[in-house]
Design a protein that fits this description.
The complex is a heterodimer. Chain A contains 8 helices and 20 strands. Chain A folds into 2 domains: 3-216, PmbA/TldD fold; 227-403, no CATH class. The longest helix of chain A has 18 residues, at 115-132. Chain A is an alpha+beta fold. Chain A has helices at residues 3-16, 72-88, 115-132, 204-213, 232-246, 248-253, 313-319, 340-345; strands at residues 21-37, 40-58, 61-67, 104-108, 136-154, 159-177, 180-181, 185-191, 218-219, 227-230, 273-275, 298-302, 305-306, 331-333, 349-353, 355-358, 366-372, 374-378, 381-387, 389-394. In chain A, β12 and β13 (305-306) form a beta hairpin. Chain A is globular. Chain B folds into 2 domains: 7-219, PmbA/TldD fold (2-Layer Sandwich); 227-456, no CATH class. Chain B has helices at residues 67-87, 115-132, 194-197, 205-219, 235-247, 252-256, 319-325, 358-363, 413-418, and strands at 16-32, 35-53, 56-62, 101-105, 138-154, 159-177, 180-191, 227-233, 276-279, 282-283, 286-287, 304-308, 311-312, 333-334, 343-344, 348-351, 367-379, 384-396, 399-403, 407-412, 422-423, 428-430, 434-437, 439-442, 444-447, 450-456. The longest helix of chain B is centred in the first third of the chain and has 21 residues, at 67-87. Chain B is α+β, with helices and mostly antiparallel strands. Chain B contains 9 helices and 26 strands. Classes of the chains: A alpha+beta, B alpha+beta. Chains A and B meet through β2, β3, α2, α3 and β5 of A and β2, β3, α1, α2 and β7 of B.
Chain lengths: 416, 459
């Protein structure tokens, strides 16, 4: 049966079963993936999957059922189950679905892959890496193309269709000489095309070069308080830490460090963070939120000031605060005006943090972890790669702003 | 339920082929401060085929499982193998033939509980916590269940059918002290359906009281003094050390791709007190929490003694890595969902118990820490690791002291293993975790308490 008709049938069946509010989210995903094993391309996968997620609200009680079978008999069973799930649950007036919005169809990226080009790009990358970085071995190298077609319909009349096609690349590697091994490092990207050789995208080539240097990493001899220069590859670790504190669970439970900080500074004014899921300049975005709204781009931290939480409709209803206009992700940190090299020159003693293997931050925002694939900086120069170095970080210091990682931000590099 | 009998397809499997039908069924209920935040079920099933041709693999999967869909998956997998074979010039050495057969169904024989009954169970636990501990700022009770049902046939041929359910209940408590929140979490449960794991909420109350008492001590706790310290890692942390920091480096694919363990075979890598095993399905006479009898390549799963009395003795293998090293495959090839290919994965990984008593181990430390619970863990190809620690105590002059705040421990795992000088005589398993390596997979890990030297974070 055609996807949209299945979704409409599901909504009708839920309504006929006495459901007050219903949502149907139907996704079909086709993926083709090439993988490397022991430096050779040795696996081609093609997968065809679907997911039909049914949400039912009966008397403020909510249930959710997901299945991947679309025959009418399976759908009927799914509807029966979700109605029973909702009836079994507890009343919560925060349960809701999105209101009626104009119906729209969104499309982004290529719908079908060029499999021969995928092979050629991956083969070219492996050939380049073997020649340029013979000491480097690859644990995971995956290039895939996925097309996801989504229909989101609800009983308020919402009707969105989204087609997202994109290529994704992921690589995980380490380097070895004799018995010395560098820490593994990784990189990856999503793209709408494979126009560029893989080695020329993002910082992959730089990370491979650094991996070879890092075979001779040294431990630091002493504990010190110094500057930390976080590279763009590592920044994501810290963004995900902030993100967790802005979402439903942290805010509903009251455990979020930032629960009372809306429209207040939580970082230095040099830091501005956007979420741009609908940007044409970026792949990896989306147009429809999980709770049935058309997604919009927004600014989460504007010159250090927290401008929005990442609350869903449920989270917003529960906390009495505003719903976020997207699900987060597709993050962009606004560049600054200092060149990266000049930032290094400005540091007397510190660490260039290229990867952070950290513990989950505790509720009070303290966390520590190991500086991976990182470098010691002294007198404005990178001295040597380091290992076994633990970094302690205080997301918001209870004692002083100067020890808080975000409040003590001294600048962002100008390069993008 | 999926088809149990796939022998009819053996005749159409020309090259080496695995054909697998699988359904994963998930239940998730999240109760936060007495209210149901999430109440959901998921069932995802389908068929996959993986074909080996001249050193390359073709894989295809389809969510539909009719006879035609199964044949189509085999055809597509062959086509994918042919595509790669056309482009590459790889070896054509065959994989080892393994012919095994087995059925292992851990489904409950009891009547299944309804969703309402599951929610009532959680409500009762939540009600107990709310009434007894009104000063808590928040409390969560979470139930997460996963059934994996698999039916496999290979061209060798091997046949396997299994149902492996896992039911985990998680309790999280948060308290605020001087404006700062402190949290502690504990997981209960393991192999089996909910009905076999949990009969009466009151059976958990003593353990819940225990979490609260630890949380109070943690909220009054101090920052650990950063540096290299004598510590006792309790079973939870010893288990994650065995799995994350040692286990991963000894998965044969990682050893081949440059992990430090690739150079250590038959060398001393740990104190002679240490024997570390990845158990297949039965450990020390008890059934394991993540039992694997026949893996997803049709190989009979065997225990892998990774380290024996301090010496590295074996890697974990699939058919391809076993052929590379000239050894027998060990039954570690596992796939998470029907649309995933089997990868080398751990099953039930643990350091074996020693002869020491925990009290004597604590008494032997003048200035150190007793570390009990971990939050997360990451490890490296170098065996350098980092684990979050959410519960621990100071040890001063051989006695437990103040609680400590959340911290992190790190080190080079093989160096830490060499520093072990005492191992407790008990054994605790933990089976709430999922291991991530391209795909998630349920694993269990465990161990005794170990005394060693480790870097601890703090101030």
């Amino acid at each position: 049966m055609e996807s949209k008709r299945i979704a409409i049938e599901c909504l009708n069946m839920m309504k006929e079963s006495g459901v007050d509010k219903a949502q149907c989210l139907l996704k079909n995903t086709e993926k083709r993936e090439l993988s490397v094993n022991l430096d050779k391309i040795d696996l081609l996968r093609s997968t065809f999957d679907a997911s039909l997620q049914l949400t039912a609200i009966v008397g403020d009680r909510k249930g959710v059922v997901s299945i991947n079978k679309m025959e009418m008999e399976d759908v009927k069973k799914g509807v029966e189950q979700v109605v029973e799930m909702a009836q079994s649950s507890e009343q919560d007036s925060a349960n809701d679905i999105s209101p009626r919005q104009p119906g729209k169809v969104f499309q982004s990226g290529p719908e079908s892959p060029d499999l021969d080009l995928m092979y050629d790009r991956l083969d070219e990358f492996m050939g380049y890496a073997a020649e340029a970085f013979p000491k480097t071995t690859f644990r995971t190298v995956v290039l895939n193309h996925a097309l996801t077609k989504t229909h989101l319909l609800n009983s308020n009349g919402v009707d969105f269709e989204e087609h997202l096609g994109e290529y994704s690349f992921m690589v995980l590697f380490s380097s070895k000489e004799g018995k010395r091994t560098s820490s593994f490092n990784y990189s990856g990207y999503t793209a709408h095309n494979l126009d560029k050789p893989i080695k020329d995208v993002g910082s992959i080539d730089t990370l491979l070069r650094q991996s070879v240097d890092q075979i001779s990493a040294q431990a630091l001899k002493q504990k010190f308080v110094g500057d930390v220069l976080v590279t763009p590859d590592c920044l994501e670790s810290f963004l995900s830490t902030i993100e967790g504190t802005l979402r439903d669970y942290a805010l509903i439970s009251g455990g979020s460090l930032f629960k009372d900080k809306l429209n207040q500074p939580i970082a230095d004014q040099k830091l501005t963070l956007h979420s741009r899921p609908t940007s044409k300049d970026m792949s990896g975005g989306y147009f429809v939120t999980n709770d049935g709204f058309e997604a919009q781009d927004n600014t989460i931290i504007d010159h250090g000031v927290l401008k929005t939480f990442l609350l869903s409709l449920y989270g917003a209803n529960k906390t009495g605060m505003e719903r976020a206009v997207n699900n987060g992700d597709a993050y962009v940190v606004e560049p600054g005006c200092t060149r990266f090299d000049d930032m290094i020159k400005s540091i007397d003693k510190g660490v260039m943090l290229c990867r952070f293997s950290g513990g989950s931050p505790s509720d009070n925002g303290d966390f520590s972890g190991v500086a991976k694939n990182s470098y010691y900086i002294e007198n404005g120069k990178i001295q040597y790669p380091i290992n076994e170095v633990m970094v302690s970080i205080f997301l918001i210091s209870q004692k002083s702003a100067s020890t808080s990682v975000f409040l003590s931000c001294r600048g962002c590099s100008s390069e993008v | 339920m999926i088809k149990r009998e796939l022998s009819n397809y053996v005749d159409i499997l020309s090259a080496y082929t695995e054909l697998r039908l699988q359904e994963n069924r998930d239940t998730l209920i999240v109760m936060l401060n007495g209210q149901v935040m999430r109440n959901q079920r998921k069932a995802m099933s389908g068929v996959s085929a993986r074909v080996y041709k001249n050193g390359v693999w073709g894989f295809a999967s389809n969510r539909n499982m009719s006879d035609d869909d199964i044949k189509l998956a085999i055809h597509e997998a062959k086509k994918n193998a042919v595509f790669l074979d056309r482009h590459t010039n790889q070896d054509n050495e065959p994989l080892q033939i393994t012919t095994n057969s087995g059925r292992n169904d851990f489904s409950t024989a009891k009547p299944r509980k309804t969703q309402r009954e599951l929610i009532e169970f959680l409500k009762e636990i939540d009600g107990y916590i709310e009434k007894k501990y009104p000063k808590l700022n928040s409390r969560s009770v979470i139930l997460t269940c996963l059934d994996m049902e698999k039916s496999l046939v290979t061209s060798d041929p091997s046949f396997a059918y299994s149902v492996t359910p896992r039911s985990i209940l998680i309790v999280v408590m948060t308290v605020e002290k001087n404006g700062e929140p402190f949290e502690l979490m504990k997981t209960f449960g393991g192999l089996g359906h909910f009905e076999d794991q949990f009969s009466d909420p009151s059976q958990l109350y003593e353990k819940i009281d225990n979490i609260y008492n630890h949380l109070m001590k943690k909220s009054e706790g101090v920052y650990a003094d950063a540096g290299l310290k004598d510590v006792i890692l309790d079973a939870d942390l010893a288990g994650i050390l065995a799995h994350e920091a040692i286990g991963h480096t000894t998965e044969a694919d990682l050893a081949l791709s440059g992990s430090v363990a690739g150079d250590y075979m038959n060398q001393k890598v740990a104190s002679p007190l240490v024997t570390l095993v990845d158990f297949a399905h039965t450990a020390l006479g008890e059934p394991c929490r993540t039992p694997v009898y026949i893996d997803d390549e049709g190989v009979l799963a065997k225990d892998v003694a990774i380290i024996e009395n301090g010496v590295l003795k074996s890697y974990m293998h699939n058919k391809q890595s076993a052929r590379h090293f000239g050894v027998e495959p060990t039954g570690n090839a596992r796939a998470y969902s029907y649309s995933d290919e089997p990868l080398i994965r751990m099953r039930n990984t643990a350091i074996l118990p020693g002869t020491d008593r925990l009290e004597d181990m604590i008494a032997s430390i003048d200035d150190g820490y007793y570390l009990i619970k971990s939050s997360n863990g990451q490890a490296d190809s170098t065996s350098e690791f980092m684990f979050g620690v959410t519960l621990g105590y100071e040890i001063k002059n051989g006695k437990l002291g103040r609680g400590i705040r959340d911290t992190t421990i790190s080190g080079i795992a093989f160096d830490v293993l060499k520093s072990i000088d005492m191992i407790s005589n008990d054994m605790v398993w933990e089976a709430g975790g999922m291991c991530g390596k391209k795909q998630p997979i349920p694993v269990s890990m465990g161990g005794p308490a170990i005394k060693c030297k480790i870097n601890i974070g703090g101030k």
